[in-house]
Each structure stands twice: as structure tokens, then as C-alpha cells.
């Protein structure tokens, strides 16, 4: 997890102290199994504790079917957790963030990392459109993120802050995206996956461009101040390890595992009429195709950092 958000959140907590004399309430939207949240919040809260003993209440949220057992284990047992800090209390809610998760005007500092690019439903698309970016997906994403932000802004107190880190669209970011789709297209060419099945190979997320973000944020003129909207290139950490003298075999294994995990559910979903044995066989063949695409060229992703402040209801 990139720690560039740490000084931003630290500054927001300091500013939030001016808004209330009571506990500061923090929200973490899309906590998953907790690892990334702990890496960020341990550092932020350690730094905050160096100058303030103000009580802190943290609300972690994710879907009902999130691996909550793993999450609570991470909070309570990970060496990266904040659980040992005094006067810090945490809660969790299993509920979609497309709904309101906290009472109005109740959150001082909000944070969401690599969660808000997930769509609320599979978008429509034309017969020739297969990939992450196409017009129907763009409109679905703009609607989804607008609705999501509407709820988050309701939950913020006036003067409260939200930081969003999310995957971004960039024309230079084609290597990793092609690894999600080309292996399955190759299986179609080999007659292993049908064209009809491939048409149902949907990706559950969308990477917003700067222009799309500006369109979304424009819906809240007068309610928020946009403090920052930046797009950043991030090099895959496995690739960084490799070019700095790491093992090529280890790099290939890590990248394969990363891509294969992301491909598995969309692939299984498009093979819904197949037996479990057939799905697993085709998945293994897909992994073989992924391996063929891994070389020594740079692997990167782009992400957006959006920082807003609520200024009015």
C-alpha cells in the first residue's frame, strides 16, 4: 500500500480537532480483509498520538460477504495493526457502500483505498465491446461514483474531509489490463472458450479518467471543495523488486498469482453452464496463457487521489 495518504490523513485529523471537543470519528470505506487499512491507519494514528490523546472512533465498512473473520484477525493480531494504541475504538459494518452507512453529519475524516472503482452492477455493452473501458461502463461508473459520493458527503460533518485513492484510466496503462483479457481471448481462438461465453466475461470495475472525475465532482458544486485531484503512475512492486536484483522466477510467480486471482471470478462467471471440473481446467489453461505474457517490460498502474472537504449541506 502506498503511504502517500498518511500525511494527508494526519493533516485532516489535526484540522478535525477544531470541529469538535469530543471523539474524532473516522470512516474506512472498503476495508476488505484489513491489511491495507492497518498499514495506513497504524502509521497515521501513531503519528497523531504523538501530539494528541483525543479519543478516536474508526468505522470500517465492506460488503456483507467480506471475509470478516480475516479482518478481525488482522486488526487484533497483525503487527501492523493500531489495536495497541490507547483511546482508539473500532467498529465494522457489512453493507454496500452504495447505501448510507453512518448517520448524517457524523464523520470527521473519511478514507477509501482501491474500492470505489467497483461497480454496483454489470453494465450493458454492445456485442463488439469487451474490456474495461467502453461507453456503457463509463456511464455506469459515473452514476455509481456519484451516488456513492452523495452518501459519503451526507455522512461528513461540515468541515469534514474525505480522501479517495482509486484505479485510474490512462492510455499508457495497457500492459496490466491486457493481461486480464488477452489470455481469455486466446482461449476463444483455440476453441476452448466460446465467443458467447467471452461476451459474458465482464470486469466488475471501471477506471475513471480525470475528465470523468471532474464531471462527477461537478455535481457537488457548492457542497464540497475539491482540495486535490491528482493522477499518479505506480510501478508494480513485484517488478520493482525484480529490476533491483530480485529473482526473475519469483517475479513471474508473484505477477501470475496477482493476475490469476483477479481473472478467476469473471472467468468462472462467464463459464456458468460448465461443470466445476471444466471451469477449473479452463482456469488452469488461462493461467498458462498469462504466463506467456509475462516478460521483462515494465508493469505499472495509474491511480487517482481525490481529496474533498464538505463546506455545506
Automatic annotation (TrEMBL):
GO terms for molecular function: metal ion binding; methyltransferase activity. It holds the Pfam family Methyltransf_7. It comes from the Eukaryota. Keywords: Magnesium, Metal-binding. InterPro entries: MeTrfase_7, MeTrfase_capping, SAM-dependent_MTases_sf. PANTHER family: S-ADENOSYL-L-METHIONINE:CARBOXYL METHYLTRANSFERASE FAMILY PROTEIN. This is SAM dependent carboxyl methyltransferase. The lineage of its organism: Eukaryota, Sar, Alveolata, Ciliophora, Postciliodesmatophora.
